[in-house]
Amino acid sequence: MNEFTITVPDNDLIACICGTNDSNLRLIEDNLEIPVFTRGNELSIETDDDQLRQRFQYIIDRIIDEINEGGKNSEDIVVSVLNTHKRLNAEEISISVPGSIKKIYPRTQNQAEYINLLQTKDMVFCTGSAGSGKTFLAVAEALRLVLFHKKNKLIITRPVVEAGESLGFLPGDLEQKIDPYLRPLRDAMESIITPEAVRKLSDSGIIEVAPLAYMRGRTLNNSVIILDEAQNTTCSQMKMFLTRMGENSKVFVTGDPTQVDLPKRTQSGLVHSISVLYKIDDIGFMELTADDVVRNKLVKKIVRAYENEK
Questions:
Q1: Has residue 175 got a pLDDT over 70?
Q2: What end-to-end distance do the CA atoms of the chain give, in Å?
Q3: Can you tell me the distance from the alpha carbon of 270 to that of 234, in angstroms, rounded to the nearest whole number?
Q4: For 292, left (φ over 0), alpha (ψ -120 to 50), or beta?
Q5: What number of other Cβ atoms are within 10 A of residue 307's Cβ?
Q6: 159-172, pLDDT tens digit by residue?
Q7: Are 111 and 89 in contact (CB under 8 A)?
Q8: Can you name the residues that pair with 223 across neighbouring β-strands?
């Protein structure tokens, strides 16, 4: 039986992977159902099974990526990686964006299922609280499709819901007026590829970021279109948006039904559309919860507290 070895870049990293008294290593062994050996900064298994070798490589690569991304509790990282991997029957679920220095992996089982929907369905609705990854993962998959030339254009939109001020009274030109509404979407893109790359794609028209009102009357072919903050669409706006979908296009709709800023007695287009469309097999639906919040542990606690208040 041949040995399969992975070399870890430095000793501090391998110490994090192995955990206190090799506690993380035991978790990995339980998942693989074979022993894992350590020598210096090397991890190895003895097997001729190519699928098992791929699983081992994938698990270690993911753990390293998560630690390098700033993860501090190595046991939490290992448990998250192994649980996600087990749920997916050892399939590698990730988003590889050309020009990005890292693969984007799901941090939870629900996020893994969400990525799977984004990659297999032409229309996906995802609801979830702040920090659950609903917008970030949609943007990542959209960039992958565009930069791999699967789609010609990425169009990102969101409704402009005014809170006490009219856009007409805000300073600046139209782009400056709507920038506060669209800035979170640009931030998501710039966390995946460089700001310079985003600027070049925007200048060339490959990436378009615009308020929802600009979608009226258009047919969007060979594009990937993201509607963010969809809970703030009216029913008529949502219908208008969904019917913009043209040939060879994909549509991702994200929002948080608990954060509706519409006038009282105005029904959310997101909530209404899900209730109308949920029986259509070709459309994917995903609900992320407080357990999927990866932004900050305190944010997770806040979201869960509000959920428990209901």
A1: no
A2: 57
A3: 8
A4: alpha
A5: 12
A6: 876 443 344 544 55
A7: no
A8: 153
Predicted local distance difference test score (pLDDT) of residue 144: 96
Please state at what angle helix 74-87 crosses helix 11-18, rounded to 10 degrees: 60
Q: Round to whole Å and give the CA distance between 275 and 278.
A: 6
Query: Rounded distance, CA 215 to CA 240, Å?
Result: 8
Q: State the alpha helices, DSSP H only, in 121-234.
A: 134-147, 174-190, 195-203
Strand partners, 158: 211
Q: What is the DSSP code (8-state) at residue 263?
A: P
d(CA 92, CA 112): 9
Length of the chain counted residue by residue: 310
Q: Report the half-sphere exposure of 120 (CA within 13 A, side-chain side).
A: 12
| DSSP assignment letter at 151 | S
Query: What is the C-alpha to C-alpha distance for residues 141 and 136, in angstroms, rounded to an integer?
Result: 9
Give the span between the Cα atoms of 238 and 35, in whole angstroms. Answer: 53
Question: pLDDT tens across 232-259, in order?
Answer: 999 999 999 999 999 999 999 999 999 9
Query: How far is the CA of 96 from the CAs of 62, 182, 190, 202, 310, in angstroms?
Result: 13, 24, 15, 20, 38
Strands 103-104 and 153-158: unpaired
pLDDT tens digits along 68-108: 776 666 777 888 788 776 555 445 688 989 988 778 888 88
> Counting beta carbons within 10 angstroms of the beta carbon of residue 53, is it exposed (0 to 12), middle (13 to 18) or buried (19 or more)?
middle
What pLDDT, on a 0 to 100 scale, did the predictor assign at position 295?
55
pLDDT at 163: 40
3-state class (DSSP) for residue 163: coil
Mean pLDDT (whole number) for 55-69: 84
> Among 236, 235, 244, 247, which Cα is nearest to 216's?
244
- Decide: residue 258, CB within 10 A, 0-12 exposed, 13-18 middle, 19+ buried: middle
d(CA 298, CA 78): 20
Place of tokens 């709507």: 178
pLDDT for residue 296: 59
